[in-house]
Amino acid sequence: MGFFLETLFGGLMVGMLYSLIAIGFVLIYKASGVFNFAQGAMVLFAALAMARFSEWFPLWFGFQSQILANILAFIAAMAVMIVVAWLIERLALSKLVNQEGITLLMATLGIAYFLDGVGQTIFGNDIYKIDVGMPKEPLMVLQNTFQGGLLLSQEDLIAALVAAGLVVVLAIFFQKTATGRALRAVADDHQAAQSIGIPLKRIWVIVWSVAGFSALVAGIIWGSKLGVQFSLSLVALKALPVVILGGLTSIPGAIIGGLLIGVGEKLSEIYLGPMFGGGIEIWFAYVLALVFLLVRPQGLFGEKIIDRV
Amino acid sequence: MKLKSLALTAALVASTLGALLAPSLAQAQAKEQFFPLLVYRTGPYAPNGTPWANGKQDYIKLVNATGGINGVKISYEECETGYATDKGVECYERLKGRPGVALFDPQATGITFALTDKVPTDKIPLITLGYGLAASQDGGVFKWNFPLMGSYWTAADILIQHIGKTEGGMDKLKGKKIALVYHDSPFGKEPIPLLQERAKQNGFELSLIPVTAPGVEQKSAWLQVRQQRPDFVLLWGWGVMNSTALKEAVATGYPREKMYGVWWAGAEPDVKDVGANAKGYHALALNTSGTQPKVIQDILKQVHEKGQGTGPKDEVGSVLYTRGVIIQMLTVEAVKRAQERFGKGKVMTGEQVRWGMENLALDQKKLDALGFSGVMRPVSTSCQDHMGSTWARVHTWDGAKWGDMSDWYQADEQIIKPMVKTAADKYAGEKKLTRREAADCQS
Amino acid sequence: MFYRENGQFKSSYRADQQIFPIAQDRLAILVLLLVAFVVVPLGVSDYWMRAILTPFLILSLAALGLNILVGYCGQISLGTGAFMAVGAYAAYNFQVRIDGMPLIASLLLGGLCATVIGVLFGIPSLRIKGLYLAVATLAAQFFTDWAFLRIQWFTNNSSSGSVSVAGLNVFGVPIESPAQKYLFCLIFVSVFALLAKNLVRSAIGREWMAMRDMDVAAAVIGIRPVYAELTAFAVSSFIVGVAGALWGFVHLGAWEPAAFSIDRSFQLLFMVIIGGLGSIMGSFFGAAFIVLLPLLLNQLPGWLGFSISTALASHLETMIFGALIVFFLIVEPHGLARLWSTAKEKLRLWPFPH
User: Fold this and answer.
1) How many CB atoms lie within 10 A of CB C223?
2) Torsion of CA A62, A67, A68, A74, to 10 degrees
């Protein structure tokens, strides 16, 4: 029983980590209707920027404090992501307005390849460290109820809290600020928003920057956990089932979807995996999402697709 | 009108084709020995592939700076494979036709499997030091493969021997649980038959935990380790999988002292950013590391100080860098040996280099003369034995560097030899090959 | 001037309905086939045939299959690599387990197995649409990745997980040399291209296009959605499966599941989009673009005379590839086929402006 609970907790927390990445997808889809396949590359790029800047700034500016390095690196990385967002909007998206979904999807794939190449050219191919002071040792709880206690990863717990915090921040941003309202208006109907004077281009840059911000946060968390290297962009593939399960247009959906996929993945790998020889978690997540989609074809919280004839 | 347009179109097409018709390079008499270098400096395996490639290139530069191979200069060209089999085959096809090509080091087990089928036709040997097909130790079937200094079977065997020794005897292994956390690819799966055989003989329970390539997410694997609570974990990973495995081991509280990695999971990139948290992790050491050995000093002096170094200077002497140097040294020695028979100071063909590889006799004296004393053990190959040496040690990470070398172990021939022969015979049966005749050993 | 239809009158329905109604088109195709079948094997170097033309042919066949699904029927599929893998491994099993199995039969049976799997993974398409379907097809991709790695039976219990075929021959004629492999693939591609072209011009093709454009309206006028969508998946997977079998048998010789990974699926989707959705010709253009581009990028530093590290070269290749994709989609979102048809239309009028 104890181990089952450990697996459950582990799954829930990993799920929150997936939602960190999924939020980026949802943000962009909601506001511009583009399925951003480059989100994984953005996570990698942001993480590389953060890791390398936090390494280079102490050398360039001659100070020792890790905390100062991290703060400066965070600001620099955020600035870089805003520049990236602006460039993507300017060079790619504005030229592809009104194209079909699949064309935009391919364009974001092209952007993903480009970001991968640029990131590694500028920042390098090695494994880099992000040290934000996350505790690496596990925490043992409920020592009285279960023999030896239940294993809880402190790092994952903090990451889950960060993800929840991010959602709260985004929710406040969308609901309470004027820009957030403008974003929601654009997500609802581009033409109507334009007609009341909302500057579409600027909104898109803001959306991609916010997505870049969530990519940076996700990159820091995942990078701190796994080390920053090219393979980090592959984690995005694990976050895709979360996006479609939760619905492409819903941030709470990304969270709930993340929790479901995380738990499903871990439980299936531990309990079903040995029957099949192991390694089943990645396709299990997708199959799980597929099954949910059969019941609700637009995801759990997504907007219903209305076909007009 | 129709005829005219037909003639016009035909002429247009013919002229375009004339441009396409790449004039096949006449096989120029090679002036230099060509070493194609298949590398991966990008992708999830780059952190480990890069020092390996740098070691190889630096040694070539050293040889060129000190007179070449009996006067024959070495030329080389890198080709990026990204550890992908199809890119590796592509690189092979592109470079195999170069004049003076000596041999190939695929740097990947998957690529080795693909090339093993092609090299007998193309007559170019493959060196697969410490990796590749375990069965290719049998030179009677695998004429063109050279898994020098060890394969995954010898590696697994030595690890089990070492664990047995630390427990106080091989009989103490009975009833213990050993888990293999492996990269889900031909590389990771290769040691399984030997471990199963050893489990039968020594009475321990083997559990297999695959990690989907490239091994960036391992939470489930390590939760399973926690569930099974094995006494020991063998880590068979490459690239990012290794550091991720150690990080997950920390996160699930599995003692690193009970973890043993293969020689491809025991280098600096694997433990550097886990740092002190990986203290106590053991791994196989096929070679020593450090900047003491004479050959490393020579490289620093003759290559790096002249600004010719391939990689960063602080990488020189690291575990994988040194292994790359060893691989290149063995290939150069094979060419030298071939020159002894086929013409000193001449460029060797692939077949001649193969003979050289099959007749390597590097005893301690020769190794000392080359500057490798203390780095590796003597290597001596033969027609039937393409491995040359089955010795390795175990080293431990102390949080800052690798050290605490164990004694030398030799893989147990009693177990491995029959397995190799069975596997080689099976391969020969599948591919409809026959074992080599004794006379063939002289060629 | 050259491309006029003046004087070309059709006197039978059959002549009117042919694939190339204009005589110049027929001539061009004849010359192309002549060049492809006769001139290339005799004149072009082995390296070109082995490393460029054969993969181009096989990938254009796969792109053809994918185009039927994505371009003609409008179902985005990201799992094409999976169907190629099924075709390859199924053909392998047929070839290896049954003694004396003819090669062509193995390849076609491999395609049939891919059809079954394709229809299975196509069933969700009846309910799920658009981008949700695209991501759901990744389930097929990852499932087959895992299945061919884990289930020993598929790889004939090979301990390493990689399989290989050797000694290919068709009724005694060996398929060993680059020229023979090239011709073998060319025959397959020509036959399948003809079949596909006729299929998309027929009633079932029109049903697919109706489903793509407006599936509700199509259902209203009596087209059965189940039949249309599942046949699209079936035909597409068959062609992709045969292409996968060819890829494994003829081009690679020995392969492991990673040869049909998600990168392959993306690559094929790129070919289809760049080449032109809903166009048979487009699949070939797209395949040529995607096959030749990395080679060009690889050789470019050498031609321009400076050498760069392989890592940088590899990254530059990725960057330029990505940038070119985006550039292309901006310039011509309907693909190379649209450029081609625009060119032909201008040629019809040349030298007159309109």
Assistant:
1) 18
2) 120
User: Residues B295, B147: one domain?
Assistant: yes
Within 13 A of C315's CA, how many CA atoms are on the CB side? 20
Domain residues for the domain of B184 are 153-285
The answer to whether A91 contacts C326, with C-beta atoms less than 8 Å apart, is yes
Q: List the one residue out of B105, B102, B109, B71 whose CA is nearest residue B91.
A: B105
State whether the Cα torsion B3-B4-B5-B9 is positive or negative.
positive
Question: What tens digit of pLDDT does each residue of B200-215 get?
Answer: 999 999 999 999 888 8
Instruction: Test C333 with A103 for CB contact under 8 angstroms.
Output: yes
CA distance A3 to C236: 46
Residue B3 lies in a domain: no
Is B209 in the same domain as B137? no
A273 touches chain C (CB under 8 A): no
For residues B200 and B266, membership in a common domain is answered with yes
Three-state SS at A25: helix
Q: Is residue B430 part of a domain?
A: yes
Q: How many domains does chain B have?
A: 2
The domains located in chain C, with CATH, are 50-349 (1.10.3470)
Q: Tell me how close the Cα of B318 comes to any Cα of chain C, in angstroms.
A: 20
Whether chain B has a CB inside 8 Å of the CB on C29: the answer is: no
Largest CA distance in chain B: 95
A289/C149 touch (CB, cutoff 8 Å), yes or no:
no
- Decide if B28 is inside a domain: no
Residue contact B212–A282, C-beta within 8 A: yes
Whether A254 is in a domain gets the answer: yes
B430: amino acid identity, one letter = E
Report C:229-258 residues touching B (Cβ under 8 A): 252-256, 258
The pLDDT of B358-384, averaged and rounded, is 90
Buried b (16+ CB within 10 A) or exposed e, C193-212: beebbebbeeebbebbbbbb
Peptide bond into C21 cis (omega under 30): no
**Is residue B36 within 8 Å of B98, Cβ to Cβ?**
yes
Residue A237 with chain C: CB contacts under 8 Å? 138, 262
ipTM, 2 dp: 0.87
Tell whether B198 is covered by a domain. yes
Q: Which residues of A192-222 are buried (b: 16+ CB within 10 A; e: fewer)?
A: ebeeeebebeebbbbbbbbbbbbbbbbbbbb
Q: Are residues B369 and B434 in the same domain?
A: yes
Backbone dihedral angles phi then psi of residue C175, each to the nearest 5 degrees: -115, 70
The mean predicted confidence, pLDDT, of chain C is 89
Cross-chain residue pair C161–B97, CB shorter than 8 Å: no
Q: Rounded to a whole number, what is the distance in Å from the CA of B251 to chain A's nearest CA?
A: 5
Contact residues on chain C for B42, CB-CB shorter than 8 A: 311, 314-315
Q: Tell which A residues from 14 to 53 touch C, by Cβ distance under 8 Å.
A: 35
Of A128, A229, A281, the CB nearest to B44: A229
Statement to judge: residues B349 and B207 lie in one domain: no
Give this prediction's pTM.
0.88
**pLDDT digits over B213-248, tens only?**
888 888 889 989 988 999 999 999 998 899 999 999
Q: Which of B285, B313, B332 is the last residue of a domain?
A: B285
* Interface contact flag, C130 A118, Cβ < 8 Å: no
B243 in the same domain as B268: yes
pLDDT of residue B20: 41
- CA-closest candidate to residue B388, choices B396, B397, B378, B398: B378
Calpha distance C94→C228 (Å, rounded): 30
Show the domain range for A268. Answer: 2-295
Same structural domain, B301 and B435: yes
**Count of beta carbons in the 10 Å neighbourhood of residue A65:** 10
| Least Cα separation, residue B311 to chain A (angstroms) | 12
